[in-house]
Amino acid sequence: MVLTPRLDLRQAQSLVMTPQLQQAIKLLQMTNIELSAYVEQELEQNPLLERIEAGTVEGPETRGEGIDEIASDALPGEEISDLSGGDAADVLTRSGETGEDLDGGQSMDADVDNVWTNDAGPDPRAGDGQGAIGGDSWGGGGGYGDDLPGLDQTLVDEVSLRAHLLGELGMLVSTPEERIIGQHLIDMLDDAGYVQGSLDELAERLGCAPRDVEAVLEKLQGVDPTGLFARSLEECLALQLRERGRLDPAMQAFLANLDLLAKRDLPGLMAACGVDAEDIQDMVAEIRALDPKPGRMFSHDVAQPVIPDILMRPGRDGGWVVELNADTLPRVLINNTYLAEITRVAKGGEAKRYVQDCLQSANWLVKSLHQRATTILKVASEIVRQQDGFFRHGVCALKPLVLRDIADAIEMHESTVSRVTSNKYLATPRGIYELKYFFTSSVGGGGGGEGHSSEAVRQRIKTLVDAEDAKKILSDDKLVALLKAEGIDVARRTVAKYRDSLNIPSSVQRRREKSSAL
User: Fold this and answer.
1) How high is the mean pLDDT of the chain?
2) What is the separation of C-alpha 316 from the centre of its chain, rounded to a whole number of angstroms?
3) Confidence (pLDDT) at 451
4) Is the pLDDT of residue 122 over 60?
5) For the chain, how far is it from start to end, CA to CA, in angstroms?
6) CATH 1.10.10.60 spans which residues of the chain?
7) What is the pTM of this model?
8) What is the CATH number assigned to the segment(s) 442-517?
């Protein structure tokens, strides 16, 4: 056989994802924060895009290429979405319109000089503008002059843990060497007030003796609140007990056996400390009155609430009304007036190509945003329909549900449903839930009956444990028997796994806790 080069023509078909389709997929799985950041980036890069703020008037210069005009257009790729849903389009297309007149209700024959605006310069009667009533200084919130602070600048500043300790450092140490060591120790504290890291490594890095670091640490442990600069939970509690004069040998033995307290092994604690039951109860009460994380009192982090993507409320016909949260939807339109101006003045092929690329990118962005919202609404509506029992009766009525069930019902791919339900939240009369919460595995029913949701089984186990008698603690085998009597066929190891996921102790530990409480 002779090997010779030759040219062949072969025809083949392959599935290629266009950039527009990739953009639609990327937008679909974004969270609210990520989507807002992405839209802000597009607004900076594309001069044809314009944001429509809530409550603003939508004029004819931006009404041209909006969501209303593209609601009937389909984005390529049936896997992503089907834009034939009229209800979803109605919810989306009317979110950016206010129904107001273009002049904002203002009479067109009003004298211009008689209309007050907040963008005027300093009042000429005020000379240099200081203390002007009609100028910018009045609208800035400062009162009567630009040199006065605004209301937001007069609030009390919250002191951080590091700032508090740096202020106390000068009163606790005297030499510059000790001050340097103290600053490094302050930097080694975590949010709870514990020293993280090795003191020997710090001494080697600073070129000093380890005993010098220990001496400075001992001085810093006297700072208020007591318990800071501890290297363990035992040391933190010991510092607080020493300040109260309660660190006797029995209490030291108690702190050395905190693992027995975690296991509720009170007989073991009494043997280790050499005290009776009454004394051990008093010692437990003293330990619970201490602060295991003294540094947390300087933490001022505010928990950010979850902003739901979908809102749900009861309907008049007994059903549920599902709608998108308009506050989380970015409103962007194409400014046709600016497009016409730059198209008229664009000279040369490169400038025209740039304008055309910006227009195409803006069109695809608006379409992709509309399609993302429509797809989220379709998936959420189907989840609400299939989990109707949960919203009416609670977790006990939660049905087993997988991604394929929703995908088959709305004729989409499972990957699309997975992207939609990730980091998307639904506000219901029972609280705010992530869409992923409603997808649970199935636990077999007794006698070949209908399966039960694993989340509903967990809730049932928790209910049985909470209602158990202190003298008759339910073991895992007893829980299996009770669940089978209710038609839930579940194995013992599954009950143990669900119990551990709920942070429910074993029957032995629960017996100890409830017997000690009695």
Assistant:
1) 78
2) 32
3) 77
4) no
5) 94
6) 442-517
7) 0.59
8) 1.10.10.60
